Amino acid sequence: MCNLATVSIVKKRAPEGVIEAIDLLGGVNKFFVPEDFVLIKPNVCGGVPGKVGTFTSLEVISGITSVLKNKVNRIAIGEADSSMYIADRMLKENKIIDYLEELGAEIVNLSKGDMEEVPVQDGYVLESIKVSKILTEATKIISAPIAKTHTTTQVTLNLKNMFGVLPEKKKARFHTKIDPILSDIVKTFPPTLCVVDAIVGLEGFGPFHGEPIRLDLIVAGDNAVATDAVMANIMGFDPKKIMHLRLASEAELGPINLDEISIVGESIQEAKTEFKKSMQEPFSRAIARIPGLGHLFTHYAYENAVKSWKKKMKETQIKV
């Protein structure tokens, strides 16, 4: 790579942190032109309702949208259904529909409407990916994940966030080869800009059972792999030991070595907040080989997490 990937680290909450993080990368005009149709892909269907740190916050999503307003031709916020949720419900519950439509953004369920089969060039596993035509029509993609630990992939950041563009509800069947599949998806649909919501993340037994952890950070980058490598470092992980990042780097999708990344704003040392690691589930990939079982396993873990969270909130209210 001739030019270093650039990642900015800003210790501010949204929307100010979002604006500053993008400015440090060169500003919105560096990435987008007036004719662009920009799809923003947040993590909206991958957490526990009401539990801060499990979904991309409305403040970060609206901050990105505000930066783009009047700068591009069309903006859409897109999410697909998951094993636990229908995207329409979560986009409504998180107030994304009401708030962002006022900013002129379209809200789309990537599991509905016309689909298109897109070939994967020299992929690890996939030969093609079936996705919403909205995704193929977009001229640029912004990935906006929240920083969390994960029982299967250690961390869930930009690469794992893009897994959420797959339209089918029972995505767990892909967990048999989740690491190379994440690389194939990002190779086919590389985000132009990545904005990680690390204001409040999730540590421990993620992506559902973990505990919220406050960092008050926005981490943005012009390459998904590099941005994940920096964020993983901040969380206390070695990117070289995270399989999907290593595979993506070997596929030349981006660097995971810090000396190949230009870091601006705060330093990793200043931003570092050691996350409690998630217990790695040894059976998740094997279970996914059995049709339907992976979906049930994921849903069971989610239901338990929801019950645990509701119980904790009830106990907290009683103590107060």
Summarize the structure in words.
The chain is α/β, with parallel strands linked by helices. The chain has one domain: LarA, N-terminal domain (Rossmann fold, 3-Layer(aba) Sandwich), CATH 3.40.50. 35% of the residues lie in helices and 22% in strands. It has 13 helices and twelve strands.
Short summary:
By secondary structure, this protein is an alpha/beta fold.
Topology:
Layout: E1 5-10, H1 16-24, H2 28-31, E2 37-42, H3 58-68, E3 74-79, H4 87-93, H5 96-102, E4 106-109, E5 115-119, E6 128-132, H6 133-137, E7 140-144, E8 146-150, E9 154-156, H7 158-162, H8 178-188, E10 193-203, E11 211-221, H9 224-234, H10 243-250, E12 261-265, H11 268-271, H12 284-287, H13 293-319
Helix pairs in contact: 8-10
